[in-house]
Amino acid sequence: MGEGLTAEQQLEEIRNNLTTIQQKITDTCIKTGREPSSVRLLPVTKTVPAERLRIAYSAGCLEMGENKVQEAREKSQILEDLDIKWCVIGHLQTNKVKYITRFAHEFQALDSLKIAAELDKRLQAAGRGMDVYVQVNSSGETSKFGLSPDEVENFVKQLPNYSSLQIKGLMTLAVFSPDLERVRACFIRMRELQEKLRQNAPDGLLFNELSMGMSGDFELAIEEGATVVRVGQAIFGKRPLPDSHYWPGFG
């Protein structure tokens, strides 16, 4: 998708894809009695070249999700003339924290107090905050990052110690399976965990957001309460290699 097309054709293609996805979001919300505005579409731009992202911005992609810090950092520098909100959605190593606090608006993969402490230290020094989601391993797969559901409640009790982290909610990668009921079970687990946290989380932590669902399963995720869906290939086309190459721990 996009190969051999002019910039104008690429713009039209991305606009059409965004319209299709937004219509699916709207239809699913209406079917489940939700307001379509309650679901945010986060375009996932990993492996998409910066020049194509400039076109995507013109098509309406004002937020962009990246899972590799170096790639995100480079793109943010190339596209610094655009008002893009960058979201880091992949596992973060401590030595990379200093980079994301310079350009990222949001971090969706917090699963370590060590990372929380380093983020907070860097953000405090910069005099700013950051929206953060706690990553949960809802499928129980050892290849995936994230806290087990049983660990989350104790983990979040520590988060008020890091005042620059604005905890928005939870994020997960569901099991990668053609069995939709196995996928749905991951999303149900997240919704139930969210409800539990809303009752028991420390004051000031609301956990209103659930980031779950990607190109192949975002409608299912919305049915089970997703407020953020992370969609890449349905907008930009298939990647040249499988997700496991770009996103360690995925499927």
Can you walk me through this structure?
This protein is an alpha/beta fold and 251 residues long. The protein has a single domain, classed as Alanine racemase (TIM Barrel, Alpha-Beta Barrel). It is 43% helix and 16% strand. The chain is built from ten helices and eight strands. The strands form two sheets. It has a six-stranded parallel beta sheet. A two-stranded parallel ribbon has the order 1-8. α7 links the parallel β6 and β7. α1 crosses α2 and α4 packs across α5. The C terminus is likely disordered.
Write a brief caption for the model.
The protein is α/β, with parallel strands linked by helices. The chain has helices spanning 7-31, 50-59, 69-78, 97-103, 113-126, 149-156, 180-200, 218-223, 233-236, 243-246; strands at residues 40-43, 63-66, 85-88, 104-110, 130-136, 165-172, 209-211, 228-231.
What is the topology?
Blueprint: H1 7-31, E1 40-43, H2 50-59, E2 63-66, H3 69-78, E3 85-88, H4 97-103, E4 104-110, H5 113-126, E5 130-136, H6 149-156, E6 165-172, H7 180-200, E7 209-211, H8 218-223, E8 228-231, H9 233-236, H10 243-246
Parallel strand pairs: 1-8, 2-3, 3-4, 4-5, 5-6, 6-7
Helix pairs in contact: 1-2, 4-5
Jot down its keywords:
8 strands; 43% helix; 251 residues; alpha/beta; TIM Barrel; two-stranded parallel ribbon; disordered C terminus
